[in-house]
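Here is one chain, start to finish.
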Amino acid sequence: MLKKISSYKNITFLLILFFFSIIINYHYASLGAFPMDTFFHFDTAYRILNGEHPIKDFWIVSGPAVDYIQAIFFYIFGVNWQSYLLHSSLLNAILTLATFFVLKNFNLEIKYCFIYSIFFSILAYPSSGTPFVDHHSAFFSLLGIYSLLIAIKNNKKIYWYLLPVLLYFAFLSKPVPSGYVIISVFIVLFLYSLINKTLNPVKYCSISFFVTTIIIFIFGRYCGITLSSFLEQYIFYTQSIGAERLTNVNFTFNAVIAHFKFIYLAMIPLFYINLKNLFVSKNYIKYNDFYYFLILLLFTFSLILHQLLTKNQTFIFFLIPILAAFSQINLIKIKIKLKNYINIFFILIFFAVTVKYHLRFNENRKFHELQNINFELSVKGKKIHNKLSGLNWITTQYKDNPEEEIKLINQIQSYLIKDSRNKMVLTTYPFFSAILDQKLHSPFRVYAGDGTQHPVKGSKYYTKYKDLIIHLIKKNRITVIYIVTPLKNNNIYDYIDQSCLKETTLLKNLKSYELKDCVSITN
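Its structure:
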């Protein structure tokens, strides 16, 4: 009877976690938009369904895995806002259930597993809401970390096999932070195998790695993506961006310590207990507990390093409930007085922390730069197109009058619909292809203008990017290029000689460039 009651309780908790994780992400993802981030994978996923592919048909520095996953959602559920959110919301639910499963596997009381998993679901994907490369990379990395923890704890082959697959998905979402996590996992794997004198983890992971590599290589060849282009765009160009950021990073007390103080706070008991055991317990380095600690420590610092180097808003506060839960697990293992009071104290502290970051990043939408927006002024996204039904449209640029922005967007749509010529559209609104059901042949995912999404003049890879633009123009017989302004440094003449283009201002935020009989590249 007790087992039956426990089973019902588990199912009830899992159902609550599943639906809560989906609903909370759906809700906050639909509050406002930061177009170039909110729709980062909207057009590109649609383009995949129409036979175009990242790297081959548009320059990317991240996110091919996210594009292809989103294309699957669009294929099954239709090209619309709802299926776009289903992707990120379902991943939020999977991560939350995985967190519950892992904590339960480490013998944390089920009520605490549930509470910490709820905290996690609030702080995980809702900060972005829509599919985003940093989140996917971090969260597939987290699933890899979970797989590693369970593999060591339960010594089951399936989790060793699963580890490289998850880390591959993380890397193909974005090279960082996954790259840092992969290095950390390699260190743990090497140390664990060496100390425990077993090659099985290395063997299983190697088999999985090589099989996954072959499958990805075959898939890339099928899509027409060459290895040289992949390395050039996804590895070498990305490294050049990272190198520039590394020289500009500011390792101050506020940046490194104060900003992440609650992450460190959640980790203090975990860190103290394991550090003490290293000095007190003989051969503690052979204990599984040491590897659990090392895995969580390296994963945490990998994400913090990524946040210090990236220009994006902080999104790694989901670490807090995970680290707090493992700190509580470690406290339970030692015979400490007033254990129940300490557990309650932990829950109350991190409930308050969860509320703090929920208000900042979910309610105020800080990750997408919407913290100073009055969402009551938002307008229904279906006023742009029915495919955006469910989105409450308001952006930072037109925060006082979103109707004006929608009017301008609809005017742009009107021009694009009426023009039946083969065209290329450069824009910070990466959804025109999808909502108009047209091939618009953009050479990049979204326009950033700062060299983070494609090479600009002065870059080592500038010529390669120009070659891609000219190739797309010739291959698709482009006769006109539209530029939706305002774009920073939107100098099309950096890539195509001015004598080959006829510039016309159509609207205050739309220009056309008709191609003449020549297509040449500036020196």
